[in-house]
Amino acid sequence: MYRFAVLVLALVATAYGASIADRIVGGTNAADGAYPYQVSLRISNSHFCGGSIINQRWILTAAHCITSYQSNPSRIQVVVGTNKLNEGGDVYVAVRAIPHPRYSSLLIRNDVALIEVEEDIVYDSKVQPIPLPTEDFTKTDYPATLTGWGSTSFPSTGAPNDLQQISLNIISQEACLARSILTSASNICTLTVAGEGACHGDSGGPLVSDGIQVGIVSWGTPCAVGDPDVFARVWSFIDWINGYVN
What we know:
By secondary structure, this protein is of the alpha+beta class.
């Protein structure tokens, strides 16, 4: 009976959770150039997920964002250097879309992926990489910044044109693990108040604290209803990331 309950919860979270961890509610418009590491992932110029620049050839995002495009990564456009979806920025075409080899869509585990672009990303004041952690993040009740073009309300009214920003609170790992049977040591969670959190379109985007990317938007309950949002913990995957990037 317990195994059946676990399976049902996992299926519900996959169908209703992973798809909704795409979201910012309660945020504000970001200042132009304030988050030069933020990218918009698009298909036919339509935004579907966020990501972050980690060096001139590689983008960090969520596995659930890119599994449909592994066999045809060139469909993915990586747009950098703009806070607006309708103008500006430079476009790079993906040549590889690589989900973590142990990614599970059923359990929403190891929800991390890399995108390689076909040519070096040109850095300037609005285009820069985000540093990755050199040690695990263990601070509790500590602020972190989430950015993205996720929906600003639920039910979704579509992606905002302007990049959104919000300061969230990283909760204790004990509280993160208690959030769901699906959370694990390779997750990090945030919770401030109801009405503030991620939403449709934020998936794959960066959670940043002290200038370091500590999380990748993975899943949650739509949208900003007062349950913790769940992120892939970047430190848990740093060796896998560096194996490609370096």
